[in-house]
Specification:
FAD/NAD(P)-binding domain, three-stranded antiparallel sheet, globular
Length: about 450
Amino acid sequence: MRGEGGEYRTRYEEASPCSYRILPQIRLEPILLNRARELNPKGLKHSTDVISVIETSDKVIVTVQNKDGPREDWEADYVLGADGGRMMADQLGIAWEGSIKSGYLYPLGPFPSDPDIEEWYFGCAMLPDDPQRFDTDAMVSRIRKTLELPDLKIELRSVSHWYVGSIVAEHFRSKGGKVFLIGDAAHRIPPWGALGMNTGVQDAFNLIWKLAFTLRGAWKPPNSLLDTYEEERRPIAKGVAYSSLFNLRSHGDAMDRAIGVSPNQSIEENQSAMDAFFDKEHPDYQKKQLDVQGAQTVLDGEFCALGTEMGWFYPSVDTKNEGKSSRHDGQIREDDEFDNIYYHPSTIPGHHLPHLWLQRGNITISSRDLLQPQHFLLLANSPVKWNFLEDFHIPYRFEHIDSSNGWKVSEGAWKELFPAGENGAVLVRPDGIIACRGNPDDYGLLSGIWV
């Protein structure tokens, strides 16, 4: 979650039980690594490169090169390509679609800041007089020049070259169906909007439970579930890639224009424009302040875009087209465009299970806390169960709301969001997506959808 402070706080608190935290990638990765070690201590291989991935009729052969050992061939039923877009898509013959362009001082912690040990990330676009490749000395010089601190003491940890890419793989699954692309291997999204990692995590969240159900034999026929991965995730990735590229361009098109700076102007002209923005005595001060406020509204798509963050949904899950009449409860605007700024909670199939605070006895949890990776969740208005779910081989757990011995809604609009009637209920996938909604008499609700 981003941008939840100040005037946006209430909006974010209503949407999610989670609060905002700054956690740069170099701080997050050790946490993920430690958790992975707990779950599978023998399954992590370091200093090991994947040389090739070959798909046969019944398996996938992954050839790896160990740093201090021979090459090995590993066999798998399925492979997830999460290599950051370095080789997997190209090796599978999957093309890329979109735009690529060449690529700020950002705190990396620790928090609270300590000037003696604080770390920063510095990113910059290439200038005409820059070398084609930065070595350590050239980058230190560039940082000092940009910050106008010629004597700044810098300990440079690493230098890397990257390109701002707004591209999405043509397919998220190999022709043979056994290799899947996730994360940056499937889409390279510019950092403007900070949704690249979010989108990659969403890929994994969407795919992992489907693979688990398939491998356990809990879904028939097996491929019917895996077939939904690309259908659901690729449109989302394309939308986020477009939105991030739009945010990037908005910096120049909106904010730079409002302030009056431009790469085509001299340093003196840009400095004069900046002075006018900060100098209350300058005749252009008031106009520039208003222009910048207007530009900030445009940039809400980057810094406060709950619609983009949480309002995205999978249209293909809405097999009965329930969202058409309400424009998916407002997530689609009257002009038929997606509402990027505002999140509209909904239980229409394909949408996320909305966050509501639930209470039973002295326990208070979010409705999202009821989700479990190994089960579907049947969330109902009464203790009446959908017993026919067993006929469709769907493992599920049952919870009921606002009835005897059930969860009570302490805050939130349960009756506005959930199906009407005493026996109304929603069936939620392990990834938190509404699968369908209705009542126990709708035996045909799942027929033709899941099997």
